[in-house]
Amino acid sequence: MERRQRVRHGMIAISCVGLMGILAGCGSSAPQLTFDGTGCQWDGSTALSAGPADLTFRNQSDEYAAMAVLELPAEGSARDRELALVGSDFAIPSGQDPDAAQLVGTLLADPGQELTQPVPLVAGDFVVDCATMSAGGQPIHAWRAASLEVKP
In CA terms, which of 8, 10, 31, 134 is 20 to 30 Å from 64? Predict the structure, then answer.
């Protein structure tokens, strides 16, 4: 249990730094990401403007889960874009990245937990995933929830 708490605290610290340049919502309502154990649902605009906003992650599953924000390469290949298909899900082989996107932030949640974090946006193309996590804090399986385009 102590190791899991250290992993969680470390990932939250990373998310505070990593997410600082990624997500924001339009208007007054925060984008929401909900994981139910079998899929991931993004509720919010996917065409966003750079600037500050809140992001809410709801883990409605019975599992330890994470929200991951990944930046797609600016010079991405057709394969990179294909991997960004919303609604897809995939196993993550131990020690391997799921695709060419770069992980820029993670927010971890216990079963039934809801977290909201203020974050600013930078321009770029991103994908948002939900993932089940091992007791050691490693992703096991992921669901692609959204593909985001952030304009300056």
Answer: 31
Tell me which residue of 71, 74, 73, 65 sits closest to 23, measured CA to CA: 71
- Six-digit token string for 71: 């930046």
Let me know how long the chain is: 152
How far apart (Å, rounded) are the C-alpha atoms in residues 22 and 4? 26
Kindly provide the b/e burial profile for residues 17-29, where b requires at least 16 CB atoms within 10 angstroms of the residue's own CB.
ebbbbbbbbeeee
The residue type found at 141 is H
List the domains of the chain with CATH numbers. 2-151 (2.60.40)
> Which residues of the chain are under the pLDDT cut of 50?
6-28, 98
